[in-house]
Structures are given as structure tokens and as C-alpha cells.
Amino acid sequence: MNQALKTALSAIAFAQFLKIPLKKRETGQWDWKYFFETGGMPSSHSAGVTSLATFIGLKKGMRTIDFALAALFGLIVMYDAQGVRRQAGELAIRLNDLAEEVMRLEQSPKQKWYEQKKEWIRERLGHQPIEVMAGALLGIATGCFSYQRTNKK
């Protein structure tokens, strides 16, 4: 596997891992499921694409087509993570709130359907801008670290 890909995958894995202690600090409980979930702090999408672009930029140069492609791809991914996907998450929150309100208001036997409903619409889809920025900074640091490490060999 080439070093650029290893760098991006490492940044994604590290960002996903960081979600666990950050959530523990927020909730007081360790929950390893956050390693496999989307959304949250920091953005692993941003970390992955910025580490890739950073590594390529340092290795091949900022004026290469390789860097241009990685940077443009990264910008699109980060825009989508904090734009479209975040709005889908906000919509999911509102739909879940509406389902809870209907459940609370309904006094008929149909209410059992809501009690049996175990899966709600996923709300953690996208990122707040600060989560995208944190992921980008983590990615830049990972890309620089990986470049420094490969240049010493």
C-alpha cells in the first residue's frame, strides 16, 4: 500500500478513535460504538482528505496535478460533511422529535407501535463547522508527520 493511502487511512482511524474519549468526557461513559459512527468531533472525513492532500503536497509539490486533485476532492468532502449531511442529520432530529410527540399525544392502542419501534432515524450524519476544522487540523498534522517520517528513511 502506498504511503499516501496509509497516511489518509491512519488519519481516519485516529480521528474515529479520538471520538471515544471525547464522548466519554461528555457523557461520563466509555462507548466504543463511536469508533464506527459518522458525525461528531473530530471529522474523520476532514482528517482523511486533508492528510492525503498535505502528504501529496509535501511529497510532490503544491503545483502538481496530484495535489490539485487531492485538495479539490478534500474541499468537496468537507463541504458535504458540514453542509448536506449535517442538514440530513438535523432533519432526522426533527423527525424523531415528531415521532416522540405523536407517541406522547396518542392515547390509542396504536401506541404500541411506537413502543416496539427500536430504531430511530440516525441523527449523527454530518458535522458542525468546528468538527470539520478540527478534523482538517488533525489531517494536516498527520500528513506532515507521515511526510517527515518517510523522508527520514
Q: How many structural domains can be distinguished in the coordinates?
A: 2
What helical percentage do the residues reach?
over 70%
Determine the mean pLDDT.
82
Radius of gyration (Å): 20 Å
Q: How far is the N terminus from the C terminus? A: 17 Å
- Provide a count of the helices: 6
Can you describe this structure?
The chain has about 150 residues and is mostly helical. It has two domains: about 1-85 and about 130-153, no CATH class; about 85-125. Helices cover about 75% and strands about 0% of the residues. The chain has six helices and no strands. The protein has helices spanning about 5-25, 45-60, 65-80, 85-105, 110-115, 130-150. Helix 1 (about 5-25) packs antiparallel against helix 2 (about 45-60), helix 1 (about 5-25) packs across helix 6 and helix 2 packs antiparallel against helix 3 (about 65-80). The longest helix is centred in the N-terminal third of the chain and has 25 residues, at about 5-25. It is elongated, with a radius of gyration of 20 Å. The mean pLDDT is about 80.
